[in-house]
Every structure is written in C-alpha cells, then in structure tokens.
Amino acid sequence: GDPESVLLAVAATIPLYGFLALTDRLPSLRALRDLLIDRLGFLLASMSRMELLYLGFLAGTTEEVLFRGFLQPWLEDMWGWAGGLVFSNMIFALLHWITPVYGLVAGLLGAYLGLSLDLGPERNLATPILIHALYDFLALQVIASLWRQREISRRLPMDPSEDEPY
C-alpha cells in the first residue's frame, strides 16, 4: 500500500497493543492470556522472530481476505453496511471461540478491523491486513516472551534461607 495507508495501519495497531497490557490487569483477560501461554507458549517460544512475523502475516492476510475482503462486503450487499460489519464479525467470533471471553475479544477485534477497512479516503483491504498482521506478530511475541519468563522462574533455585526453619 501507499505510505499513508501503512502509517495509518501502524497507528491503528497501537491501541490494540495497548489492549495487551490490560490482559494483566483484568482477571478474565489474565485467564485468557494464561490459557494462550499454556497452549501456545512452548511452540511460539521455539520460533524465531522471522517465523513469528511470517505467522502473523499469514494469519492476518488470510483472515482479512476472507472476512473483510469477501464476507463483510457480501453481507453488506444483503444487510447494509452495519449488518455486514456485525454479522461478519459474529462469524469471526464464533470461529475464534476458545472460551466465551476469547470469542468476545475476537468479535470486538474483528469489528475494529472491519471499521478500519474504511479508514482512508476509500475502502482499502491493505489496512486491516496490516493491522491484523502487526497485532498478531506483537501478540505472538508477547505470548512467547511470557512463556519464557514463566519457564525461567520455574527453574530458578529456591532461596536456601526459605527452606530452613528457624
């Protein structure tokens, strides 16, 4: 895309990255983050940054082509702009349903991506693709990093003074 679209997409990714910080502050989001660390952490931690970048761009591109490039416009033809946005992201949420909270988060993220389709002067599929890909790349890195931190803390020897009763 043009430099303006790329800059717009990068800027629109910042609030989503800020959302990752909330996963430590809200119990239901912390539980979701911990579930992802448990299920995906080992695999993601074994990957290089380039592999995580590729994975993020693969998921971001394929999902956005399907949901924002095909499904949302198709549903808009039947139910108007708002109907296309809502129904395409209900499907997006259902297909990401790991837990109810994850489904809700995915649906809200999908709506954000659906709105980003129309951020510039004309509809541009590159915008949600780049936002989704960058967000996935950052989120995958966070999960890998948190898994590594958890594993390191599990392996640290206990303080000997804690083992000796006084």
Morphology call: globular
- What is the gyration radius calculated from CA atoms? 19 Å
Major sheet: none
Q: Which residues sit in consecutive blocks of at least 5 with pLDDT less than 50?
A: none
- Strand percent estimate: under 5%
**Which structural category fits the helices and strands?**
mainly alpha
End-to-end distance: 67 Å
Compute the number of strand runs: 0
Number of contiguous helices:
6
| Element order: H for helix, E for strand | HHHHHH
Overall mean pLDDT:
91
Helix content: over 70%
Topology of helices and strands:
Elements: H1 3-22, H2 27-45, H3 49-95, H4 100-116, H5 126-155, H6 160-163
Structure description:
- This protein is mainly alpha-helical.
- It has six helices and no strands.
- α1 packs parallel to α5 and α3 crosses α4.
- The longest helix has 47 residues, at 49-95.
- The N and C termini lie far apart (67 Å).
Notable characteristics:
mainly alpha; single chain; 166 residues
Summarize the structure.
With 166 residues, the protein is mostly helical. It has helices spanning 3-22, 27-45, 49-95, 100-116, 126-155, 160-163. Helix 2 (27-45) crosses helix 5 (126-155), helix 3 packs across helix 4 (100-116) and helix 3 packs across helix 5 (126-155).
